[in-house]
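hey
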């Protein structure tokens, strides 16, 4: 009798994330050249950072072997990603979930859950859409940007330079407290605004405002640190792309 492998610890929010499936031949833990090239192309154009790498198999064969095969598939994809870009999957969890209950060859796969590059999000966005800036971190309780924030700001700057008609509203949000007496959310939004203006972006293309904790993604008080991180954010809203 076959065993079912359930991984309830995989966050449900992954369903809302961007993802890419790469597929394998029967009984193989190595990607074909075609799939390797497809992953390389996607890595260059769309992927900012990878959160999880999840392997699976079809239902043919013994369940214990299939679990091991799914784990090897996920690990080999992680090794490939590390060789292509050592930073992109540095925090990714690697999971083999065993078999899917079908004999469909499309189940012989690894699904890569990732955060999309800001430039790609803006390219696909419409008027009024809001986009969270990934990896935008500040000193606790301050509007001082941390050094690891520079790649995200640099990408935002490059996107604005390459799209001279793009206009953005920069919107700051905080977590945890219903009060924002010091307007920390606004100060953080202005810090991003100042970075762009100081690097040559016209003030006419930008606005900035703080909303405190009035627009949380998760209800206050947050239950976990992950929820607090999600609420504590800076977003850009598309004002114009024409």
């Amino acid at each position: 009798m076959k065993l079912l492998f359930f991984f309830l610890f995989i966050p449900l929010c992954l369903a809302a994330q961007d993802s890419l499936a790469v597929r394998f031949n029967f009984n193989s833990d190595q990607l074909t050249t075609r799939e390797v090239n497809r992953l390389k192309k996607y890595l260059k154009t769309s992927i900012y950072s990878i959160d999880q790498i999840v392997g699976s198999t079809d239902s043919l064969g013994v369940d214990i072997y299939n679990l091991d095969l799914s784990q090897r598939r996920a690990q080999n994809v992680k090794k490939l990603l590390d060789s292509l870009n050592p930073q992109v999957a540095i925090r990714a969890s690697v999971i083999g979930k065993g078999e899917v209950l079908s004999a469909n060859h499309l189940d012989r796969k690894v699904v890569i859950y990732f955060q999309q590059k800001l430039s790609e999000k803006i390219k696909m966005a419409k008027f009024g859409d809001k986009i969270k800036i990934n990896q935008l971190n500040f000193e606790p309780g301050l509007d001082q940007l941390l050094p690891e924030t520079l790649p995200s700001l640099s990408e935002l700057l490059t996107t604005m330079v390459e799209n001279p008609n793009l206009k953005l509203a920069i919107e700051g949000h905080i977590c945890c407290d219903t009060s924002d007496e010091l307007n920390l959310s606004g100060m953080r939004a202005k810090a991003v605004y100042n970075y762009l203006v100081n690097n040559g972006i016209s003030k006419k293309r930008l606005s900035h405002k703080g909303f405190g904790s009035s627009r949380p993604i998760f209800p206050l008080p947050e239950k976990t640190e992950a929820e607090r991180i999600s609420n504590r954010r800076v977003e850009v809203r598309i004002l114009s792309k024409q």
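Helices lie at 33-45, 63-84, 118-124, 150-162, 184-198, 225-231. Residues 12-116 form a domain with the 60s Ribosomal Protein L30; Chain: A; fold (CATH 3.30.1330.60).
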